[in-house]
Amino acid sequence: MTTAVLDAKSQAYDVEDVEYLRHGDKPLLARIYTPRGEGPFPALVECHGGAWCLQDRHTEKLRHQAMATNGIVSISLDFRSGNEAPYPASVQDINYAVRWAKLNARKLKTRPDLVGLSGQSSGGHLAMLVAMRPHDARYTAISLPAGSAAQDASVRCVVMSWPVINPLSRYRHAKRVAAGANPPEWPKSVIGRQDAYWQSEANMGEGNPTLALERGEKVQMPPAVWYQGRGDLMHDYKDAESDFPGNEPERFVAAYRRAGGKIELVYIEADRHPGHSPDLSKTGDMFERMVGFVHSHVKA
Question: CA 211, CA 259: separation in Å to the nearest integer?
Answer without folding.
Answer: 12
